[in-house]
């Protein structure tokens, strides 16, 4: 992508409304724009990152055996009357009437809808277990939307829903998502700690929140510090192994970890003082087992091996991609801007032409841009006629992991500079060596 043809409205000034660093940097880098309170557009740079986050989530959901579908954002109130949640949900639910005056709502979550899909077509235990997920916008009319897309009113959620014949089966489904979440957050460059959680209005009795430690987090959390070094389940994890996944779950729940709502002072004090971590955190995922809470009132049942009908045991599993993007920035930035982990960076490499219009610089940059693009790299080429200082500041701000800098003096020697955004290390090398480093 040539920067001269891209749409990346960089802000020079620090936006006043942004209270935390991720919000400030997302606005400055031209990733998002607020359209009305708590409702955002994702501009092209932000959209690229969000798509990468979603793809990692998707890969790990699929690996764990979940199946993707897409449910609508608008739902009929009737379904929610069946589960009893239409009145219970309160003011966070955006209620709408259609032209026939039928009550509708913008979905804050999809338990009812997915249960309806399930009951309409699954009749036998032989079709279980089943886990259906989508990545879709949600709306919750939050009292205090803030911190940009960290807590917005319209936001994206990956929500998965599992169906099993028995509680034991449902626990295995829960453990699959538990392990998938550990892998997902790790691939996003984050250390997320599963913490025992309150089940809130969704209900049930087995629940964990996945929390990233960050000073700007809204939750107060308490845990054993060893979680920071625990091993992440390998790519080769067998998601069909009941014992294998139980072992991962047991290991990751063996030490104390709880948010303030579930905090048990006495249990925490039993942790040796030097191992106690009391911090702030950002909730990036939340998983629940809630048994037959929806299947009973909504009549979602299957025939079991005993020939009798059984209400299915369900769980739901959420991740917030539009919260994850700022959470990644909170965890990875410096005074100059964002430092993306390679897995979610909007571009792999930025090529900076320090003197656009200079024939040698132009030729060199075009050559590098073409070679790296051909090799499958996603390259941003800063071909604008901005001053070199402005270009360096922009490249640092948007956090692309590698910068290849072509200035007249180096180019005259057949060389360019390669800068690592994270360490700041710069290396001068031949043009060919620079290309080969990233093509190999
Ligand atoms: P919170 O406690 O932060 O209000 P929640 O417990 O209501 O969140 P869940 O229903 O568990 O949220 O939703 C699953 C995930 O969706 C959360 O872990 C979070 O990552 C994301 N999420 C929830 N609400 C928002 C929001 N207002 N803005 C952005 N992401 C959100
Ligand atoms: Mg939650």
Describe the structure.
The chain is 32% helix and 28% strand. The chain is α+β, with helices and mostly antiparallel strands and 440 residues long. The protein has 2 domains: 336 residues, Bira Bifunctional Protein, Domain 2 (BirA Bifunctional Protein, domain 2, 2-Layer Sandwich); 91 residues, Rossmann fold, CATH 3.40.50.800. Strand 14 and strand 15 form a beta hairpin.
Average pLDDT works out at 96
Which CATH top level class of the largest domain fits? Alpha Beta
Biggest pleated-sheet summary = 9 strands, mixed
CATH level-4 homologous superfamily of the largest domain: Bira Bifunctional Protein, Domain 2
Query: What is the count of structural domains?
Result: 2
Taking all Cα atoms into account, the compactness measure Rg is: 24 Å
Question: Based on CA inertia axes, which overall geometry fits?
Answer: globular
């Amino acid at each position: 992508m040539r920067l001269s043809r891209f749409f990346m409205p960089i802000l020079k000034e620090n936006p006043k409304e942004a209270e935390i660093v991720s919000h400030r940097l997302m606005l400055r880098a031209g990733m998002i724009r607020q359209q009305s309170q708590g409702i955002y557009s994702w501009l092209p740079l932000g959209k690229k990152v969000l798509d990468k986050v979603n793809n990692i989530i998707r890969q790990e959901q699929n690996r764990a055996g979940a199946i993707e579908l897409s449910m609508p954002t608008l739902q009929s109130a009737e379904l929610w009357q069946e589960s009893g949640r239409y009145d219970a949900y309160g003011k966070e639910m955006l209620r709408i009437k259609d032209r026939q005056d039928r009550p509708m709502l913008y979905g804050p979550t999809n338990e009812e809808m997915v249960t309806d899909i399930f009951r309409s077509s699954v009749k036998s235990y032989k079709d279980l277990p089943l886990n259906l997920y989508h990545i879709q916008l949600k709306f919750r009319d939050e009292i205090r939307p803030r911190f940009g897309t960290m807590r917005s009113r319209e936001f994206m959620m990956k929500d998965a829903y599992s169906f099993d014949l028995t509680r034991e089966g449902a626990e295995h489904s829960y453990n699959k998502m538990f392990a998938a979440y550990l892998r997902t957050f790790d691939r996003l460059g984050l250390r997320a700690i599963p913490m025992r959680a309150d089940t809130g209005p969704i209900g049930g009795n087995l629940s964990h929140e996945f929390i990233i430690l960050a000073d700007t987090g809204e939750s107060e959390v308490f845990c054993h510090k060893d979680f920071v070094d625990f091993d992440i389940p390998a790519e080769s994890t067998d998601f069909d192994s009941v014992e294998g996944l139980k072992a991962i779950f047991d290991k990751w729940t063996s030490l104390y970890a709880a948010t303030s709502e579930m905090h048990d002072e006495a249990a925490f004090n039993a942790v040796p003082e030097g191992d106690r971590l009391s911090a702030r955190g950002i909730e990036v995922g939340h998983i629940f087992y809630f048994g037959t809470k929806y299947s009973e009132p909504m009549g979602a049942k299957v025939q079991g091996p005993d020939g009798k009908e059984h209400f299915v045991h369900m769980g739901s599993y959420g991740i917030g991609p539009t919260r994850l993007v700022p959470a990644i920035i909170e965890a990875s930035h410096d005074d100059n801007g964002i430092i993306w982990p390679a897995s979610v960076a909007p571009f792999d490499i930025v090529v900076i032409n320090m003197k656009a219009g200079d024939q040698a610089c132009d030729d060199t940059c075009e050559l590098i841009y073409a070679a790296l693009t051909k090799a499958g790299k996603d390259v941003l080429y800063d071909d604008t006629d901005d001053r070199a200082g402005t270009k360096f500041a922009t490249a640092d701000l948007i956090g692309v992991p590698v910068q290849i800098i072509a200035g007249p003096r180096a180019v005259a020697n057949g060389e360019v500079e390669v800068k690592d955004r994270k360490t700041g290390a710069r290396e001068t090398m031949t043009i060919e060596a620079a290309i080969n480093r990233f093509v190999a």
